[in-house]
Amino acid sequence: MLDLKWVAANLPEVRNRLASRGEGAAQALAPIEALAQERKQLILAGETQRAEQKKASEQMRTLKGEEQAQLRARLKTLSDEVKEKDVRLKEVELKIEEALLNVPNLPHASVPVGKSEHDNKVVREWGAKPSISAPREHVELGEKLGLLDFERAAKVSGARFVFMKGALARLELAVVSFFLDNARERGYLELLPPYLVNADSMRGTGQLPKFEEDLFKTTAGYYLIPTAEVPVTNYHRDEILEALPLKYAAFSPCFRSEAGSYGKDTKGIIRQHQFHKVELVRFEKPENAQAALEELVADAQAPLQKLGLHHRVVLLCSGDMGFSAEKTYDLEVWLPGQNAFREISSCSAFGEFQARRAQIRFRPAPGGKPRNVATLNGSGLAVGRTVVALMENGQQPDGTIVLPEAIRPYLGGLERLTLLRRTA
Predict the structure, then answer these.
(1) Residue in 39, 160, 357, 385 annotated catalytic
(2) Is 361 a residue of the active site?
(3) Residue 184: CB partners within 8 Å, gap ≥ 6?
(4) For the domain bounded by 4-100, which CATH number is listed?
(5) Is the predicted pLDDT of residue 397 greater than 90, yes or no?
(6) pLDDT tier for residue 423 given thresholds of 50, 70 and 90
(7) Of these residues, 318, 346, 348, 379, which one is catalytic?
(8) Range from 49-53, 140-144, 162-166, 377-381 carrying the lowest mean pLDDT
(9) Exposed/middle/buried for 291, CB within 10 Å: 0-12, 13-18, 19+?
(10) Which helix (H) or strand (E) holds 39?
(11) Is 88 marked active-site?
(12) Is 357 a catalytic residue?
């Protein structure tokens, strides 16, 4: 959430910076503008009346009789009016705070202005595209080997679910362990978080109230997490941290309704209602946040490099960033079967946006006044999409899939995925 006082004092700048995100972002500010004007008038009127109160109180000592009685009556009226304005000021500020929950974060100055993914900037590429004659997509590869079963998953659950079988199921879990080991080597502490959270946690990271339709909610009022970012960021909600930075890595299943995305990526396991991810979350001093974002991107790239997967780093433009982000890099891995780069990680800096919502602060010095921390997170990485990349990049003419050396120790030395012999 943006800072109420700063927004009220800098409405033109806020309006202009939000406009770079798109028309809808700027419109979210509209309900606040009239409230901000009323807030300004209340503050000015209150200050004027308090000054009059102070002056009248000083005059009381020099007056007697009827004049003193009249001034005392005026002081009583002033006191009542000031109290009324204070009550109204609190009401207005509460309304502004509620409205600010629907206002996205302001883009960082280094973010390119643009309207869509077509305006994003490729920062760098790593590795080379593999030379594969007539590459096939992961769905065809997995079904021919008997390792993917979408039909039974649809029977059991519905669309956008899958059963992974045999060595492919083992590969999914191996990738999780591989990612966590990589994160630990780079200084992240492992957390195994809850998969159900309360509304306060969703509000703290920006999923509520704006994106409730994208969430799965239980009858008991809990929400299934869309990413481990939610429980891990809220791990320090309502706390004052004594030491920064803090770096966490968390594996979790993720659950998303994908509202509004029907017809997009419906084939295969690129976009499902349930998937696995290892998330990297950092708590930093605000002045260190941008440098930490570059480190975070490198942390997410490291396992891709170890696996030998060709990928690129893309800086998102202002119109393509997520609601809470002030700056985002996407990592896009090359998928030969689709002849395209596809997102496999999104690394974002949020500034104080989430910390202000979740009341996560730090003390710059012993006894010093607490300040909001800066939060960052990134996929380190999306597990299912990594498995897709391993399948498509490792495919062989005979339909088998050769696995990178880096992942083989997690599979007991298994070198390739072959036809599953035992099928139901």
Answers:
(1) 385
(2) no
(3) 190, 249
(4) 1.10.287
(5) yes
(6) low
(7) 346
(8) 49-53
(9) exposed
(10) helix 30-60
(11) no
(12) no
- Is-contact 15 29, C-beta < 8 A? yes
pLDDT tens digits for 117-137?
A: 999 999 999 999 999 999 999
Token pair for residue 313? 């780093």
What's the pTM value of the predicted model, to 2 decimals? 0.94
Q: What is the DSSP letter of 134?
A: S
Domain boundaries, the chain: 4-100, 117-417
Query: Is 116 annotated in the active site?
Result: no
The CATH-assigned architecture of domain 117-417 is: 2-Layer Sandwich (3.30)
Q: Are 205 and 234 in contact (CB under 8 A)?
A: yes
Number of CB atoms found within 10 A of residue 218's CB: 9
Query: Is residue 421 pLDDT above 90, yes or no?
Result: no
What is the distance between the alpha carbons of residues 343 and 271, in angstroms, rounded to a whole number?
A: 11
Question: Per-residue pLDDT tens for 19-63?
Answer: 999 988 888 898 999 999 999 999 999 999 999 999 988 888 888
For 205-228, write each residue's pLDDT tens digit.
999 999 999 999 999 999 999 999
Residue among 343, 363, 371, 408 flagged as catalytic: 343
Structure tokens at 43: 């503050």
Q: Which amino acid is at 195?
A: Y
Of 17, 39, 203, 256, catalytic: 256
Which one from 271, 363, 371, 408 is the annotated catalytic residue?
A: 271
Contact of 234 with 201, CB cutoff 8 Å: yes
Cα(142)–Cα(349) distance, integer angstroms? 36
Q: What does pLDDT average to over the chain?
A: 95
